[in-house]
Amino acid sequence: MQEHDLSWVRTEMVLAEPAPLGERGAIAWVRKNLVGSVGDTILTILGIAIVAWILPQVINWAFINAQWTGPDRTVCTTAAQGGIQPEGWTGACWAFVNAKFGQFIFGTYPIEERWRPILVAILFAALLVPMLIPKVPRKGLNAILLFLALPVVSFFLLSGGVFGLPVVETPRWGGLLVTLSLSFVGIAVSLPLGTVLALGRRSKMPIVKLLCVIFIEFVRGIPLITVLFFASVMLPLFLPAGVTFDKFLRALIGVSLFAAAYMAEVVRGGLQAIPKGQYEGADSLGLGYWQKMGLIVLPQALKLVIPAIVNTFIGMFKDTSLVLIISIFDLLGVVKQNLSDANWATPQTARSGLVFAAFVFWLFCFGMSRYSMYTERRLDTGYKR
Amino acid sequence: MASQETLREEPSRGSLINDPKIRGLFFQTLVIILLFGSIWWIVNNVIDNLTRLHIASGFQFLRGRAGFDISDTPIAYTSDSTYGRALVVGLLNTIIVAAAGIVTATIIGFIVGIGRLSQNWLIRKICMVYVEIFRNIPPLLVIFFWYSGVLAVLPPPRESIHLPFGSFLNQRGFYITRAVWGEGSWLIAVAFVVALAMAWFVARRARQRQMATGQQFPVFWTSVALIVGLPVLAFLLAGMPLTFDFPKQSTFNLTGGFQLKPEFLSLFMALSCYTAAFIAEIVRAGIRGVSKGQTEAAGALGLRSGPILRLVVVPQAMRIVIPPLTSQYLNLTKNSSLAIAIGYPDLTATAGTVLNQTGQAVEGVLIMMIAYLVLSLVTSAVMNVVNARMALVER
């Protein structure tokens, strides 16, 4: 009998075999993601058909056939319509946007005074960017500067009347300037006001609670237009005869109150998510109501609902476009107003102007939503149990 | 014993100022005084202002002659009708556009939402692009885009675009064939209602039987047969009382048929597209909220992918989907007030006109607010009933 030596033991791991050819590389990806089954293949063909139908048209319209510069409507109209383009031409009329760009950004703000909104924008950016980057220290000071000092400074810079700056009436403000200032003030007012309303709704005092519930549910039940109507038509009736205040300010009040009701519900969600032990812990330390809320509960609750708060901001940013109904000309309002300019009346003007406005709105909203997703991921680690 | 007696007494607080009860009472009294004070001040100012402007308060103005025309009138209305009737027309228009928008938005939203979870990379990306575009631009802009960017640059009536089923598309709107119901068509409606009732009854009995004996009954196909078959039968019995009114092209305009005006179309399309993006996200979150173990467990029980979706995933996903879906429906209804920007005569637009003509600002805004509140409450009440039926029944 021959003896076998079975004592050999493998000492190192076998290296993993590479995946079979059919499971890796581009072909496997295509097989898995595009042509997995008969139905999948049909869907892919359908998808390709949709893309092949839309994408060339969009690219042709927005880039290849587009007219970028020009003095007036002739560059964007066909020969039959009195222009220079060949028959059957369709393309974006960016020349229109180009010519009106200053108006789209500043409205009818006097040209020689436009350095003022630009300065405000620079200040805003200089304060906002460090606020958004988590690593930059001194958030408290930054927040005070951004939400308290900046609005005051901006107000005097924009409306003038002090330090020898000429007065610029609010009806002359317009465009992106109005959109941004409306939404910024809306944000700066609605967050604290919404927090107070949310606290009121959870208060133990029945009358305070009732008032907060009525306000929140009432405002959430009606459209913003109605609130703006209210602010522009009814508010003057509420004041003593002779007392009037600026239409822009009335719109600000309307937008802020509207946003505050939505913000209150978001903050309430955060308050409800804080375990009862936190409240009781604060009580047992002998903290008063405002100390308990300000030091223990709200910091945790607000942190928890940051994504929802940002979503409310996005909604409000989009909603500011509604002020054009009470004839305040924000970005969309100015674009809409300029569409009827006879000098630029072409079949492509409306599309081009509106696509430009949509792109600007989209940039801001998309940026905000990406930032909120980033914060959500960053804060996710802290609260998992 | 003595020490226990002292413990049972109210703990002394040192000063009344530090007693939370007293503080609460004081604070609430202050709030009430402030509230009534400002209400009194506002009411006084309003009365002052109204007398100064010679406007009589009250709702008598609703009986006055309106004197303005409305372009879309679901019920009979002329400029000789009353303000009240004008407001009713506006309310009906709001309801019509909101209901149509809700149905379309739900269909598009579910398709796109499911598409975002598809195995297919291309479909997933297309749906993502759709959602990211529409979620991030204002609804008003979408409405303007449809109105002045798409519908206004369509060819004039003489060069209308021909579409299937005898419909036409041009600057003045979308012309579709109108069905003209002749005599005896009430029979069809009755048959339809009877069929619905019978289908409901069959579904109930079938469920009872399945609970008792385990035998299944093809409820779906029976219902389809009933709901389609009975009205068709009634249609044949009544002697086919249906003719079609096709839109016809004449020299300058289209005549006949049913015209959907560009105002309605752009509002409807914009609300549907915009809200669908949000509904898609809700549906996606709902389906992803059902844990994978549920699908795998159903597979282990031997269910095929169709029944897994229908019996296991969708019922659980609906539970997550319905509450946020309700608030999207409410948002759509509220956003329909944007109609005023393009001149579709919805409630806000007609109330705005009435308010401008009569100067009855307080009453006008009040009517608007109450109407929207009621619409919101009705929608959420209906959705709450649906939600209660869907909710998890726990033992």
Automatic annotation (TrEMBL), chain A:
Question: Per the UniProt record, which residue ranges are transmembrane?
Answer: 34-55, 115-133, 145-167, 173-199, 211-236, 248-267, 301-329, 349-368
Record-linked InterPro entries = AA_ABC_transptr_permease_3TM, ArtM/GltK/GlnP/TcyL/YhdX-like, MetI-like, MetI-like_sf
Q: Which GO terms describe its cellular component?
A: ATP-binding cassette (ABC) transporter complex
Recorded hits in Pfam families, A to Z, give: BPD_transp_1 (PF00528)
Q: SUPFAM superfamilies, from UniProt?
A: MetI-like
Q: Which domain of life is it from?
A: Bacteria
Q: Which GO terms describe its molecular function?
A: transmembrane transporter activity
GO terms under biological process: amino acid transport
Subcellular location per the Swiss-Prot or TrEMBL entry: Cell inner membrane; Cell membrane
Residues in the signal sequence: none
Q: Fetch the CDD domains from UniProt.
A: TM_PBP2 (cd06261)
Please report the stretch or stretches of sequence annotated as the ABC transmembrane type-1 domain.
Answer: 176-367
Q: What keywords is this UniProt entry annotated with?
A: Cell membrane, Membrane, Transmembrane, Transmembrane helix, Transport
According to its UniProt record, where is this protein mainly located?
membrane
The UniProt entry lists membrane topology as:
Multi-pass membrane protein
Assigned protein family: Belongs to the binding-protein-dependent transport system permease family. HisMQ subfamily.
- What is the protein's given name? Amino acid ABC transporter permease
Question: What lineage is this protein's organism placed in?
Answer: Bacteria, Pseudomonadati, Pseudomonadota, Alphaproteobacteria, Hyphomicrobiales
Automatic annotation (TrEMBL), chain B:
Membrane topology note? Multi-pass membrane protein
Q: What is its main location?
A: membrane
Instruction: Please indicate which superkingdom the organism of origin belongs to.
Output: Bacteria
GO cellular component, as recorded:
ATP-binding cassette (ABC) transporter complex
What molecular functions are annotated in GO for this chain? transmembrane transporter activity
Transmembrane intervals: 25-43, 87-112, 133-154, 184-203, 224-244, 264-287, 308-326, 365-386
Q: Which PROSITE patterns does its entry note?
A: ABC_TM1
Keyword field: Amino-acid transport, Cell membrane, Membrane, Transmembrane, Transmembrane helix, Transport
The listed locations are: Cell inner membrane; Cell membrane
Protein name as it appears in the record: Amino acid ABC transporter permease
- Source organism: Mesorhizobium tamadayense
